[in-house]
Every structure is written in structure tokens, then in C-alpha cells.
Amino acid sequence: MSQISAHIADLRKSYERAELNEDASHAAPLQQFDQWLQEAVNAQVNEPNAMTVATVGSDLRPSTRVVLIKGYDERGIVWYTNYGSRKGQELGGNPFAALQFHWVELERVVRIEGRVERVSAEESDAYFHSRPLDSRIGAWASPQSQVISGRSVLVANAAKYGAQFLLNPPRPPHWGGFRLVPDRWEFWQGRKSRLHDRLRYELHDGQWLRERLAP
């Protein structure tokens, strides 16, 4: 047994930075999320826009990966990816997913669940053309989630598509945005003695019901 393995159970932290209560929280979860995300950005936490996306395949095995949020509003949470990737294929068969933000420095977690849909082609086009050139070429060069023989495949593909498209690569037909339409949110604030604050918002008949959960 390694030294770290022997002592990992003893790693502990006391969460004492803030609190989350019903009186100080927003009635609508999107406003609460907007406040917390802005505070994470202002606090200069490491990659505040990074979120874990969890999907479930046809074999009922869950899988997770980290992506970057690219937009949010009353319609939902948006990110972009290769539709042929594992997550894209799993969402094609089971259009429900869960998202999680973990802002360690603020001792906060946000969990979001709901149905996932593709954004419009116009939205995907607009975002794609706002990306740096190398990222646009990379969307063509990488057969995401497929087995390749080595990194040389990616380098060769990037050179091929760079020569083909020069400065104006179009959006690949296999690449675009997903939007998760939330029906459940949870906001977690670490507290002392493991008596953490958890507020859950669930959508019922078009209205958000806010409830406190035991930690």
C-alpha cells in the first residue's frame, strides 16, 4: 500500500467560508446560478466555466467528462462538442444528462439535471465562427472518441484540413451545440461539522419548488 493510500482516509477539511439559506437565496435557480458563477469568476477560481457532464449509454453504464459552458439563459445550459463522440452518441439514445460545477475555492457545488436537445444550426454556426482558427481546424481533425493509431493521425488531419480550408473552415456537420433544459437544480455550500447547506429546486407545473435537503 502506498503512503498516500494509507493516509487518504485522514484527509479532511473544515468548510467555513459561507452559508446558503432560503432567505438569502433567489426564488429562481437561474438567478442563483448566475450569482454564484459571477462570484466564481470574480474570485478568479481556476476555470470557473468547467463543468462535468454525465450521460448514460444504451448499456446503462454512466460516463462523465469535463467540458466548458458556453452560454446559459432561460432556455438552458449550452456546450459544444462533436456529435459523434461518446457523449453525443449517448445523448442521441438517452437525451437526459446531469451537469456539475465544483468551485473548490468557494466550497460550492451546483448540480443540474434535465433533458438535452441540440441547439439550432444558426447558434452552432455563430459560435463555431467565433472560435480561434486552430480550434476550428481541430474540430475537423479529431474523430473524437474513436481509436487512432497515434498523435500523428491528428497532426496529419490538421495539416490536411488546414490546407483545404485555409482561413475559413466551415462548421463540420458532426459538430455543434447541446442545450440541457433543467428540471432540477441543487446548490451545495460547504459548512462546518459536515452540516452542509443544500437547496434543491424542482420544476412543478411550470413553477420552481425550493426545498432544503439534509447533507
UniProtKB/TrEMBL annotation:
Reactions mediated catalytically: pyridoxine 5'-phosphate + O2 = pyridoxal 5'-phosphate + H2O2; pyridoxamine 5'-phosphate + O2 + H2O = pyridoxal 5'-phosphate + H2O2 + NH4(+)
Free-text comment on the cofactor: Binds 1 FMN per subunit.
Any single Pfam family the record assigns to this protein: PNP_phzG_C
Flavoprotein in keyword set: yes
Chain ranges of the Pyridoxine 5'-phosphate oxidase dimerisation C-terminal domain: 175-215
InterPro entries referenced in this protein's UniProt entry, alphabetically: Pyridox_Oxase (IPR000659), Pyridox_Oxase_CS (IPR019740), Pyridox_Oxase_N (IPR011576), Pyridoxamine_oxidase_dimer_C (IPR019576), Split_barrel_FMN-bd (IPR012349)
Signal peptide residue numbers: none
The keyword Transcription regulation is annotated on this UniProt entry: no
Residue ranges of every copy of the Pyridoxamine 5'-phosphate oxidase N-terminal domain listed in the record: 37-161
Binding residues annotated for FMN, in chain numbering: 65-70, 80-81, 86-87, 144-145, 188, 198
EC numbers: 1.4.3.5
Entry binding sites for substrate: 12-15, 70, 127, 131, 135, 194-196
Co-factor requirement: FMN
Entry's Gene Ontology molecular function annotations: FMN binding; pyridoxamine phosphate oxidase activity
Pathway(s) this gene product operates in, as recorded in its UniProt entry: Cofactor metabolism; pyridoxal 5'-phosphate salvage; pyridoxal 5'-phosphate from pyridoxamine 5'-phosphate: step 1/1; Cofactor metabolism; pyridoxal 5'-phosphate salvage; pyridoxal 5'-phosphate from pyridoxine 5'-phosphate: step 1/1
Biological processes, Gene Ontology terms: pyridoxine biosynthetic process
Quaternary state and interactors: Homodimer.
NCBIfam families cross-referenced by the UniProt entry: pdxH, PRK05679.1
Described purpose of this protein according to its UniProt entry: Catalyzes the oxidation of either pyridoxine 5'-phosphate (PNP) or pyridoxamine 5'-phosphate (PMP) into pyridoxal 5'-phosphate (PLP).
Protein name as annotated: Pyridoxine/pyridoxamine 5'-phosphate oxidase
